[in-house]
């Protein structure tokens, strides 16, 4: 449900206003002394083919993290560093009938038309269908083959993306710059651990089945000579694949872009990869953009985060090691700070400081500010354990059984909060964000209570995110925009005096009446500025930034009308007082 629909749903209720208005710079994880600049002469032939890389960036290699992209000149927050259309992209199965398979636009942008042959993929219209036909003609046959075989589930987005690369590779040939860029992606095929090897083998087998290959020799037509080539190809894909997201960061599918894949990882990144869809051109979308999150110095490496950096260090490192085969030594992973807000508990004495969350191995913990020792370590450990279990379960259930998922998040959040976990601490932050998403999707005809509960949850989630993500991060900007939009949905009548002291009333959150509208406006103005960084200054916050700007205009109008209403009432009162005194 959109916020506009939500606002419309709330308009059934008499509206207060309507009545009155009659209307730091981080260093790279690679050791600088080991960085080698790749001059044109020293570049391997494949490395000079990245046409998307602008002049102010260059490829350099380091012994720690291989090739990477480095800034030759200083860059500013919100600067677009790199723009690239993925070499290949595939929608995940649940979005095949809600998004265009070519430009990834959603059905809400306009009606979608189904491919009459496979009846599985959809397009915005003939333009997108024609643009995609060169690859879809193979895909269409493969999808029809799958349907005819009686298979009930479709191949995953990973398999469909891999197949799209294979067909394009077959069309363009092994010497095209497109294929050379794909072939230059890093592969970890030689160093795979058993679990990863199994995953890659499974992917390769599913791919061969989907392509309809019946003998090993058929692989030759794709420019590969052996099964080892195929294994390498799959390994390259796993190491270099990107999730395509919509402008509100909902995951839509998988993609591969060799120039963007040159960027190495940091858990405290100086850049992000987004798909802002600011002025969508069907031939160019889904368009990836790498945006600077902060000032980047000349000779500093561009680093993005491959994983969710709101997670604690151990979880981040496990994922990076399993999927990308490296041990992260970024500043966040090697920090010796006493407390990481991702793993923190409020001071037991209430001084406002934080203690590191205790662990099974080390249960001693004390406040970093006043040094008070944390006593209830078992309670914290239990809360974390059951919180993680509930989070896993609620995440799995959120689409199939949202009520059950909501029950889990509602029950667990108070337990974790009373154990003292801070809003930015894992798994409390993740549970709060999930709770917020579940509340929003259930807000069809909200009551004042459900709306206010959603606003309180959104505010807690936002404050947790602010402690762990730097200003401008798109996740933070979107959370701020969501909070502002929720505050703008309604402006309940000011609460009657008597329900609390004036001071208590002033502190109540969310506020009521015009104070709520002012807070909404203020939050949306800040969200617009923050989205402007995370989605790139020239993109003006992307699609969400655009809708925030529209909300701001409406709110300013409402506030203007409210002010006018109040001054008219005051004037009437003044005139009445004057005439009665005569
Ligand atoms: C998407 S690629 C990045 C480009 C890659 N360095 C190259 O040479 O093509 C991901 C791989 O780069 C390496 N890598 C990325 N970030 C790293 C880091 N912070 N430390 C060490 N290795 C890293 C890992 O081998 C990882 O699997």
From TrEMBL:
UniProt entry keywords in alphabetical sequence: Metal-binding, Zinc, Zinc-finger
What domain of life does the UniProt record list for this protein's source? Eukaryota
Single GO molecular-function term? Answer: zinc ion binding
The chain positions of domain MYND-type read 100-140
The record's section on SUPFAM superfamilies has: SET domain
Spans annotated as Disordered: 1-40
Write down a Pfam family by its short name: SET
- GO CC terms: nucleus
**SET domain segment(s):** 55-307
Q: Please list the residue ranges that the record marks as compositionally biased, kind Low complexity.
A: 14-39
What name does this protein carry? SET domain-containing protein
Native source species: Roridomyces roridus
Q: What is the lineage of its organism?
A: Eukaryota, Fungi, Dikarya, Basidiomycota, Agaricomycotina
């Amino acid at each position: 449900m959109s916020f506009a629909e939500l606002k419309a749903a709330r308009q059934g209720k008499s509206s207060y206003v309507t009545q009155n208005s009659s209307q730091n710079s981080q260093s790279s994880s690679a050791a600088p002394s080991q960085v080698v600049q790749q001059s044109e002469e020293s570049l391997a032939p494949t490395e000079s083919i990245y046409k998307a890389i602008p002049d102010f960036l260059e490829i350099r290699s380091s012994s720690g993290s291989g090739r990477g992209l480095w800034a030759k000149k200083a860059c500013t927050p919100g600067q677009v560093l790199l723009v690239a259309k993925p070499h290949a992209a595939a929608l995940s199965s649940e979005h095949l009938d809600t998004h265009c398979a070519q430009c990834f636009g959603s059905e809400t942008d306009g009606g979608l038309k189904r491919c009459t042959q496979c009846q599985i993929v959809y397009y915005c219209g003939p333009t997108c269908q024609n643009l995609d036909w060169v690859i879809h003609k193979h895909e269409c046959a493969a999808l029809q083959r799958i349907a005819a075989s009686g298979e009930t589930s479709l191949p995953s987005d990973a398999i469909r993306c891999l197949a799209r690369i294979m067909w394009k590779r077959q069309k363009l040939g092994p010497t095209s710059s497109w294929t050379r860029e794909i072939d230059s992606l890093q592969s970890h095929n030689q160093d795979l651990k058993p679990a990863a090897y199994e995953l890659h083998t499974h992917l390769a087998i599913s791919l061969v089945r989907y392509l309809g290959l019946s003998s090993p020799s058929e692989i030759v037509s794709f420019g590969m000579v052996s099964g080892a080539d195929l294994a390498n190809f799959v390994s390259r894909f796993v190491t270099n694949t990107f999730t395509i997201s919509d402008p509100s960061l909902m995951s839509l599918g998988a993609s591969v872009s060799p120039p963007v894949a040159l960027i190495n990882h940091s858990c405290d990144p100086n850049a992000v990869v987004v798909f802002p869809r600011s002025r969508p051109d069907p031939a160019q979308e889904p368009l990836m953009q790498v945006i600077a999150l902060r000032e980047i110095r000349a000779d500093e490496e561009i680093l993005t985060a491959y994983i969710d950096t709101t997670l604690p260090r151990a979880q981040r490192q496990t994922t990076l090691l399993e999927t990308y085969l490296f041990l992260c030594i970024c500043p966040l992973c090697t920090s010796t700070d006493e407390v990481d807000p991702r793993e923190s508990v409020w001071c037991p004495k209430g001084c406002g400081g934080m203690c590191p969350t205790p662990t099974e191995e080390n249960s001693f913990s004390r406040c970093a500010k006043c040094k008070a020792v944390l006593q209830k370590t078992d309670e914290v450990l239990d809360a974390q354990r059951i919180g993680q279990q509930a989070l896993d379960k609620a995440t799995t259930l959120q689409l199939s059984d949202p009520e059950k998922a909501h029950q889990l998040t509602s029950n667990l959040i108070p337990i974790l909060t009373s154990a003292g976990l801070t809003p930015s601490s894992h798994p409390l932050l993740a549970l709060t964000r999930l709770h917020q998403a579940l509340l929003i999707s259930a807000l069809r005809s909200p009551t004042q209570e459900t709306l206010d509960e959603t606003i309180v949850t959104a505010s807690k989630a936002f404050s947790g995110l602010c402690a762990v993500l730097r200003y401008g991060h798109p996740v933070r900007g979107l959370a701020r925009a969501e909070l502002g939009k929720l505050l703008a949905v309604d402006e309940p009548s000011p609460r009657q005096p008597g329900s609390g002291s004036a001071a208590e009333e002033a502190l109540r959150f969310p506020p009521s009446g015009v104070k709520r509208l002012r807070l909404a406006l203020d939050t949306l103005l800040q969200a617009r500025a923050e989205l402007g960084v995370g989605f790139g200054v020239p993109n003006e916050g992307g699609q969400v930034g655009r809708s925030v700007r529209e909300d701001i205009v409406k709110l300013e109008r409402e506030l203007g009308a409210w002010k006018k209403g109040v001054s008219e009432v005051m004037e009437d009162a003044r005139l009445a007082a004057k005439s009665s005194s005569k």
